[in-house]
Amino acid sequence: MSRLDNGQNAPRHYGILEILYVSMLGKQPDPERTWTPLTVSDIHEGWFDPWIAPPNGSGGSLRQGWINIQDPYFNRMVVGTTAFTKGTPGTPDQYTGGFIYETPITRRYLFGVVLNNLQTGPASATLRFGDITLENRFLLEETVDTTLSFNFNVRIPSGDPSIGGGRTILNPYLALYQDLGRGFSVRLVEGAYVPVDSRPDNIEASAFTQLGLGQTLLPHDVPLLGDFTYFLVANFQHDWKDNGVPNHTIVSLTPGFRTHLGHNFFLLAGVQLPVTSPRPFDEQVTVFVVKGF
After folding, report:
1. What is the count of structural domains for the chain?
2. Within a domain: residue 7?
3. pTM for the whole thing?
4. pLDDT, tens digit (0-9, with 9 covering 90-100), for 65-101
5. In this structure, is residue 2 part of a structural domain?
6. CATH of the domain at 130
7. Range of the domain at 208
8. What distance in Å separates the CA atoms of residue 139 and residue 35, rounded to the nearest whole number?
9. Residue 146 in domain
């Protein structure tokens, strides 16, 4: 059972099933409740309260996902993904797809499922399924202009070993969203990929940093261009290896955009461009179709 201000300073009690229903299927923003900030200092609160969507940033930025950077905040959504990767000379091109489902469970906890690397390959290739990642997002602090979360994802070797490598990988990270005013926002992610089983490539772990800057230009209800946002994401990944194998750092840039098509359908596209050598690929074009609910 829990309590949450209903906008009239009266406590409200929720059962477990009601918490799940309101968080996963209830109307958002909730007309019966007033959103309130959560902070690290009151970390004991919110774990048994139904999720309520926060307002937009005071400067006009939106808590909406971008390509190639992890989300700090909570959203209810299903996402279909597809990507084309142009190989370097001597390496093949790849076509991949995937699926993401995320839903808040309470105000402090979000759960998600990601089907990684649903590989289509060339037009003549056999369809192969990739690994499944289980997302666990814990809200540390959320105010009008800031969201900070701790995330602990687990990649399970459930797919074709030729795609996922047959390894269990832990993925802890901290993620931050900050409204900057004039429609701008910045996102920062710091984390690691830690395999818990043997790896033939001798990679013990990888540390990564993701940094994104973007600006929302148009209102939500503009036909086909609502919430139009452009962004630039920089990714830095550093591999730690054993057996005297040199470490390897990969840096890439992803310019992209996001737009509202109508009825809470969103289109995202971006092009990832490696900027360090050796380049793992020449470029990767990614497209997301998102349905929020």
Report:
1. 1
2. no
3. 0.91
4. 999 999 999 999 999 999 999 988 888 888 888 999 9
5. no
6. 2.40.160.40
7. 16-292
8. 15
9. yes
